[in-house]
Amino acid sequence: MELLCPAGNLAALKTAFNAGADAVYLGLKDDTNARSFAGLNFSPKKLQQAVSIAKTQGKKIFLTINTFPKPTEESRWYQAIDMAADFGADALIMADLSLLDYAHSRHPQLPLHLSVQASATNVGALSLYKEEFNIERAVLPRVLSMKQVRDLAKVSPVDLEVFAFGSLCIMAEGRCHLSSYVTGQSPNTGGSCSPAQHVRWAEKDGQQLTKLNNVLIDKSGKDEQMGYPVVCKGKYVAEDNGDTEYMLESPTSLNTLSLLPELGKAGIVSLKIEGRQRSPAYVEQVTRVWRNAIDTYLNNPAGYETQCEWNAALDKVSEGQTTTLGAYERTWQ
Description:
The chain is of the alpha/beta class.
């Protein structure tokens, strides 16, 4: 199984490779990718340097071009695809049909991976993308149970990649409009669900206040752990009882270390670590743990056991310092 790690900059990329990542995924410094934060991502020159570093070390670079162009603005996305082909990226991660068509027709030699933003969750959808655009891999949305992942893996016409660790998303990726109601910017086109320029933290009456575009998202004690303010992980007042609580999703991180044997038996080819917006220190810690876990499993699949120190290390860098299996453990699906 491939260990695929995030790289928000060259420092994170080098750290990921040194810590044992087989491949990294990254984006350009514009809205062609879904982590378009200030100070993050790669200029064309840095991308070329990243590809060179990866090839020298026998690693891989996957470029995310996974947002959806607005009318008349498609040229930026086309230029990103051409650039990736010219620089020798190992694959593109994309969701938009027109971009997949452009890449497949203009650069048939360039491997295409279907982004989680495409929300492809059944064999019919995967077969269509395979037939029309010859995708080699699909990233599964974080809304499937383990049984659903297993069932799909048995019949999938392409390799499958899953999120193994990091921030959760409760929506069918690529179809979330929650944050656009608060910020006026869609994550599907603008590149981030909570743009940094709209985020504000403040203290009042001994509590921490988190606001998104001046809308109060969360309130907590000074010593409590808080996640990055996104609408789906905010606290809201329930009309029936008046309680303030996390109605949609609490700020927790996905951690599937315990599911590693099941994912391996299902034939999942790549385990993805979320966090291009996180620091190189985060990347190093998470990559080292997962490298150790994957190697332990591959060396002795039948005897694999999750180590307490692995979970302890991951808890320290988890959102809210709390982890969950998320949708993987939903037996009712």
